[in-house]
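tool_call: predict_structure(chain=1)
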Amino acid sequence: MEIPRPGPIILFLAILWVSSASAQDGGLAAAKTAFDRGEFNKVVSILGPEASKNSNNGDIYLLLTKAYLELNQDDAAIKSAEKAVSLNPKNSEYHDWLGQAYGEKASHASMFSAYPLARKTQKEFETAVSLDEHNFPATQNLIEYDCTAPSIVGGGEDKAKPYIERLMSMDQSQGHYAQGNCLLQKKDNTGATTEYLKALESKPISMDLVNDIAIYFMNQGDGDHVLAAASALEAIVPVDPRVKFYQAVGWILKNEKPKDAESALRDYLQGPPHNSDYPSPAAAHFWIGKSYQGQKNTRGARTEYETALKLDPKYKNAQDALKKLGGS
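tool_result:
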C-alpha cells in the first residue's frame, strides 16, 4: 500500500515550524552565553523579539526573568516570570523564580504595597516546593521567607521547621544550611557558624550553597573557614573560577601566600561569569588591595581600591578602605 505523501502546504508549514524552533533554540543559546558574560541588556535584546511574539517556550521567559532581576527591573521580571508560569503551571522552577521576582519588588516597595507582594512571594515558593520537593533552591527560599517574614504576612519559624527536617532527611548539607540561615536571622552567629560548618562537612553538591557559606565566612573575616569552603567548591567542580577567588581571600585573611593570592585573583579577573552568582571583578580588585595593604604597599592598595570603585561606584568595602587609608 502506497503511503500518501504530504502536500506542499503541509511540507512548507513543517519546515517553517522547524526553522522557527531552531531559531528560538539558537537565540536562547546565544542569550545564555550573554547572561554568563554579564551582558544582561544583550539577553533582553536577543530574547525580547521572541517574547513579543508570545513564544510558547517558557525557558525564554525564565532567562528574561533572570536578566531583568540582574538589571533591577522588577516589574519586567515579574511579567516574564508570570508568562513562564502561564505556559507551564506545573514547572517548579518557574514558580520559584516568580516568587523571587515578587520578593525582590517587595523589598523595595512601600509597606502598603509590600504586604500583598510578600504573600505572593510565599505562595509561589510554596507552589514550587509542592510541585517538586527536590527543588532545593525553592525550599531554601521558602524556609528563608518563613524565618524572616513577620506573622502578619504568613512568616514564622515554626512553619520552617518541617521543611528543614525534610531537607535533613534528603540532604544533610541542605538541612544544616537552612538551619544556619534561620539562626542568622535571629542574630545567632555562633549557631549559624556551627550549622554552616556541618553543611560543609556533609559533602555538599550545591555550588550555590557553598558559595553562600564562603561569602558568610569572608564577611566574618574567617580565613580558615573561607579556605574550607574553597575546598568544598573544588570537590564539586575543580575548575570553577570561584575556587581560586576564595582560596586567595582565605590566604589574605590569614596573611599568608601574598604572591599566590594576587596571582589567583589576577587569574580570576581574566574571565569569571559576570552575574550575581560570582564575586564581581570589583571584589577581586578590593582583595588585591587588601593584600597590598597587608604588605604595607599603600600606593598599590589605593590603586586597587580606586579600580574597584571605577567598576562599581557603590562598592562599600572599597569606599570604606579608601577612607581608612586617608589622604594620598
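agent: Confidence is low (pLDDT under 50) at residues 10-23. Proceeding to next step.
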